[in-house]
Amino acid sequence: MSFVQNFPFFSIIIAMFSGIVSSVLSGKKARAVSITAITVTTVLSACVLAFCLRTGQSYTYMMGHFPAPWGNEIRAGVLEGLTAVLFGVVMFLSVVGGLHYTEEDVEPSKQNLFYIMIDLMLSSLLALIYTNDLFTAYVFVEINTIAGCGLIMMSQTGRSLTAAIRYMVMSSLGSGLFLIGLSLLYDVTGQLLMSPAKEAVARIVADGSYQIPLLVIVAVVSVGLAIKSGLFPFHYWIPDTYGYATPTASAVLSGLVSKGYIFLLIKFFYRVIGTENAVHSHIINALFVFGVAGMMFGSLRAIMQTDTRKMIAYSSVAQIGYIYMGIGLGTQAGMIAAIFHIFSHGATKALLFISCVGLYKASGDRTDFLALRGSGYRNRLAGAGFLIGALSMVGFPMLAGFISKLLFATSAFASPHKMLITLIALAVSTVLNAIYFLRLLIGLYRPTKSGSFAEMEQAEQSGRGGTAGSGFAAPAANPWTMRIAIVCFIILNLILGLFSQPIVRAITDGLAMFG
Amino acid sequence: MSPTLMLNLEEEVSMVLFGVGFTMLLLHRNLIKKIMGMNIMDTAVYLFLAAKGYIEGRGVPIMTDGVQDASAYINPVPSGLVLTGIVVSVSTTALMLALTIRLYERYHSLDLDRILISMKMEEEEQL
Amino acid sequence: MIVLLPVLWPIAAGAAVLAYTGIGNSKKKASAGSPASGETAADRASGSDASGTGSGAVAGSAFGHSRITALDLIYMAALALETVLVIMAAAGGGSVRLFSLTDTLTLGLRVDGTGSLFAVLTSVMWLLTGIHSVAYMKHEEWAERFYGFYLIVVGVLVGLDYAADLVTLYVFYELMTLTSLPLVLHELTKEAVQAGMKYLFYSVGGAFLALFGIFYLANVCGDLSFTAGGRFTAEMAAGAPLLLTAVFCMIVGFGTKAGMFPLHGWLPIAHPVAPAPASAVLSGVITKAGVMALVRIIYFLVGPDVLRGTWVQAAWMVLTLLTVFMGSMLAYRENVFKKRLAYSTVSQVSYVLFGLSLMNPIGFTGALTHVVFHSAIKTCLFLFAGAVIVVTSWKKVDQLRGLGRVMPLALAAYTMASLALIGIPPFSGFVSKWYLATGSLASGTGALGFIGPVVLLISALLTAGYLLPIMIRGYFPGQDFDGKEIEERGLAKKEPSLLMLVPIVILAAATLLLGCFPGPLVAFVEKIAALVM
User: Fold this and answer.
1) Among candidates A438, A451, A472 on the partner chain, residue whose Cβ is nearest the Cβ of C204
2) Distance between CA atoms of residues A41 and A20, nearest Å
3) Under an 8 A CB cutoff, do C24 and A377 touch?
4) Alpha helices, DSSP H only, in A268-331?
5) How far apart are CA A293 and CA A318, in angstroms?
6) Mean pLDDT, chain C, integer
7) Nearest Cβ partner for A139 among B25, B84, B116
8) Per-residue model confidence (pLDDT) at position C375
9) Where are the domains of chain A?
10) Could you say which of A150, A162, A168 has the minimum Cβ distance to residue B119?
11) Helix/strand/coil for A368
């Protein structure tokens, strides 16, 4: 056994322990520990990815000394490695990019708590990616929920507290359903590990017994994870949650957390139920329908917003819809498109959230469209970041979003029954995306004059206590950490857009390994 | 009624309880009752798991009198799951309660709708 | 590799201009500094609006008091160099493969006859309009920003013309929409922003409609590089049930830029608010980008043989004829001068599309020659409109009475261009319309083939109806015209400055010359037509 094979386990443990250690550290030290942990785990995951690519196969890793049907297992393959690396990168950049604002938003005495939550979030995400055991998955789903809730309530405003309780309620519903689903599965198959469970499911399907319980299991688990990832119509907690957390938290929550659950669902379909059975169960059609509905609804609501943060949050609802639509196509190609969109949306949305903050800071901390007018000039880099992010969302060629759309469209052709709906949904939602993102972009690059300018001058003075008389004309100073993060995010977006082929190939290989 | 109804009594009860808990968590406006609902929901799952693990006429899965034969004991795995589940649900409950206290201190209410209304009013005052 | 130069150079130059001047208004604001800068900016804006009338007097003298700055010279030199580079690329030929987007989708540029025709046309129009814009921009704010984006757009357009495959074309098409948007938005008044939004949404909507088709084609034929005559055989077409729908989507989608019904709405909104040089190139050149995209798709990708005689051809012909007629009608009823010209563009570009929809060599020849002629004519007309605005600040057609007393020479140029657009024999428009009419009759499309020339004729009459009265009432204002305003403002014999006048006159002369000696151009286009059919 190669030493590299230990790495998935190491990375989960490192993340978890850095969280535990941070509880006795000061905020600054906790931050350093957290960033180190993210870096180290990302490097480790990269090693795992390289290992799997080299050997060309996945492996399972026994935790403790009990063999397969009883013990606990980790499984790593190309897809797991790739997801872990990309999640790690996005996480790293989100934390680094929001560093400065985390300091501003969170009380000094609670800083280390924030980083504990980040560490726990990281470890639970990694565990969700790597685990081969359903009950372990459940435990880490709950850890993830708690960490997410902690991140949301960090800024301690009334909004964030209510957002946190709503998030918590919806998440508890989701995890309750997930738990009952896997209890039922345990009842029917007697297994909790994914691979033996799959064999048992195959036996059950073959002899035709327990058809209805199996259907219920698929339905309950899908709905549970759909609630947790915010699929329409379970999305109502999203706007407040993403909109009013600190920037890092927003970026991590919308970019990664919801995607972790979707990844788990894909894993559940592939590794436990088997794609064939999942497709036959017609649950997948429901996911497809709600995905398409979510695309429309999210975009329409986003158009109605006048507050940037809410607009971006509603756009997340739409993007989650895309992913479920891809899963709902029920084909290999659709799944590849969905997974690629997980990556591209993660990278893009995190970029939007981080660069948005720079624009708010340049507009006296206001977030409505009017105040943001011309802020693209006041904070050039943040403006550029937002530009790239928005264009990628709209599906501008050479950026990540375009490749997602291309993959979705190509996969649509492979499933004749859903082709027309998919294509129409793609076209309409793209146009809707364009409407709200480009409208905001024009606002950002609209030089201010006359009425609105004077008004913003006022906002500026009340915002900074009148200290910055001519501050509006001068570009707002970006913390260097944020500059790095935005530049890296832009590069990440370009990489996903320009060099998508190796990634798509890796996803294909990884799905084949799920088999 | 079919005879299986009496045979699977624990499962049926647990499903009913799960439904009750789920609905409470989803629909009740009072935060404390929401948390109670969540706990009922979790407990229902534990009942279900425990019922699944129990085998009529067998003993606790703790080795007694040196009997190593597995057929003497009930299935220990669900019990382990229940224990883990309890730990998880305790921590989520603690977190929700803490949040509820925070909200109560701030808005002097446990009613989620009322909390949302007063939050909106507070924000408007700030503007 | 030489083909890369005309694409990269203006983009680099434009970016340098933008970087040097600081993109927008920040420089001015920084110099104003204090919180009161908002008010000064507002004052300046309203001041320039109010003094628009007065400033005509200043612009009257050759270069007047508005000095030519170093930036203006660099800008014109950059455009001239661009023209040279394009011609070098057209002469040098070659192709370059830039990049692989996925296994099958690549980005690349390649020089061919059609591309060269469009690219050379683009760069020449751009140069002439650019010279005009130097004078025009003396009366607008933020000239530097205009220069920067103006330079970038020409690079993008040349890239679009030389695109080797559909994906590259699409990339440049989207880039063109985005980079030309600041030209429409330029004045940043409420109307301008609204018009810009409208322009953006129509373009983006159209582009995504087209994208739909591109995805389908990518799926069916894998490789999307352009081949003269198309890549589809009858069997391949039979194996792709949705091919016709996809093509139709692309026709409507790319037709947006060409102002084709039903997505023509942006043209009359966007043109009047844009600065005159911008509307000149929007109308004269950028609409042709939509034409270019359709030429590439129909004649270089799908192939006319597959489409001839299908419902797509019939529907397309109906749409174009409808647009031709409707555009002329609306232009006839329009009072705002630039808007009237914009409707005229709607109508005239659909002449081109009508020619393309015939899918026979004669129609194709007519279409491509009309591209060249209409470009020259419409650019000339819009530059004239710009000159009128700068000198007199008149925007409505009613106000233009007695214009012959103000700028007889420019009005003469306008007259030539108008006659050419109507299609009076010695002028250029006649040649292309002749080909279009004969092509229509020879197209074998039954009744539509006969309706075509009739609609073209009616439209030509309407064209005369909406262009000539301006000239007639300009030179012969009638008995009751007292010319009081002209005298009071000292406008008599105020020709526009040389920088404005020269491009207008050159273009007017070109319409005449091309009409008298169309041989080389027609021969060149016929060679392309023989290649694709």
Assistant:
1) A438
2) 16
3) yes
4) 275-280, 283-304, 308-328
5) 9
6) 82
7) B84
8) 92
9) 282-515
10) A162
11) strand
Cis peptide before A233 (omega within 30 of 0): yes
Contact (CB<8Å) B34/A169: yes
pLDDT single digits (tens) B75-98: 888 888 899 999 999 999 999 999
Q: Which residue of A has its CA nearest to C28?
A: A473
Interface partners of chain C (CB pairs < 8 Å, 3 or more) are A
Beta carbons of A173 and B26 less than 8 Å apart: yes
User: How far does C153 lie from chain A, in Å, by closest CA?
Assistant: 17
A435 contacts on C by Cβ (under 8 Å) = 201
CA atoms within 13 Å, Cβ hemisphere of C314: 8
List all residues of chain C from 164 to 193 with a beta carbon under 8 Å from chain A: 167, 170-171, 174, 178, 181-182, 185, 188, 193
Q: In whole angstroms, what is the distance from residue C372 CA to residue C369 CA?
A: 5
Residue A192 has pLDDT above 80, yes or no: yes
Distance CA A93, CA A382 (A): 14
pLDDT digits (tens, 9 = 90+) for C371-418: 999 999 999 999 999 888 888 888 888 888 878 888 888 889 999 999
The CA distance from C518 to the nearest CA of chain A, in Å, is: 40
Q: Is B91 on the interface with A (CB under 8 A)?
A: yes
Other beta carbons within 10 Å of A29: 15
Instruction: State residue C45's pLDDT score.
Output: 40
Position A317: which residue type? V
Strand, coil or helix: A59: strand
Q: Facing residues of B111 across strands?
A: B30
CA distance C182 to C432: 33
Q: Is A73 helix (H, G, I), strand (E, B) or coil?
A: strand
CA C322 to the chain's CA centroid:
20
Q: Which residues contact C163 (CB under 8 A, 6 or more apart)?
A: C108, C109, C110, C115, C169, C171, C172, C226, C296
Pick the range with the lowest mean pLDDT from A266-280, A304-318, A445-459, C31-45.
Answer: C31-45
The token pair that represents A269 in the structure block:
């379909």
What residues form DSSP beta bridges with C108? C97
Chains C, B in contact, 3 or more Cβ pairs below 8 Å: no
E strand intervals along C282-434: none
ipTM, two decimals: 0.92
Per the CB < 8 A criterion, the answer to whether C24 and C171 are in contact is no
For A418-448, give one letter per residue: b (16+ CB within 10 A) or e: bbeebbebbbbbbbbbbbbbbbbbbbbbbbb
Secondary structure of A200-240 as H, E, C letters: HHHHHHHHCCCHHHHHHHHHHHHHHHHHHHCCCCCCCCHHH
User: From CA A388, how far away is CA C23, in angstroms rounded?
Assistant: 17
Query: Which residues in A lie closer than 8 A to residue B30 (C-beta atoms)?
Result: none
A165–B96: do the CB atoms touch at under 8 Å? yes
More reliable by pLDDT, C48 or A201: A201
Say how far apart CA C235 and CA C217 lie, in whole Å. 15
Cα(C10)–Cα(C135) distance, integer angstroms: 20
Instruction: Determine, for residues A135 and B84 on separate chains, whether the beta-carbon distance falls below 8 Å.
Output: yes
Best of C37, C193, C214, C273 to substitute, by most chain A Cβ atoms within 10 angstroms, is C37
Relative orientation angle of helices C143-161 and C70-92, to the nearest 10 degrees:
0
With CB atoms and an 8 Å threshold, state whether B26 touches A176.
Answer: no
- At residue A467, the pLDDT reads 38
**Which CATH number describes the domain made up of B4-126?**
1.10.287.3510
Is A in contact with C (3 or more beta carbon pairs below 8 Å)?
A: yes
For chain A, say whether C38 makes contact (Cβ under 8 Å): yes
C49-69 confidence digits (pLDDT tens): 333 333 333 333 344 445 778
Contact status, residue C414 vs residue C470, Cβ threshold 8 Å: yes
User: Cα(C507)–Cα(C514) distance, rounded to whole angstroms?
Assistant: 10
- Closest C-alpha to C243, from C205, C263, C214, C271: C214
Where is C449: in which H helix or E strand?
A: helix C447-475
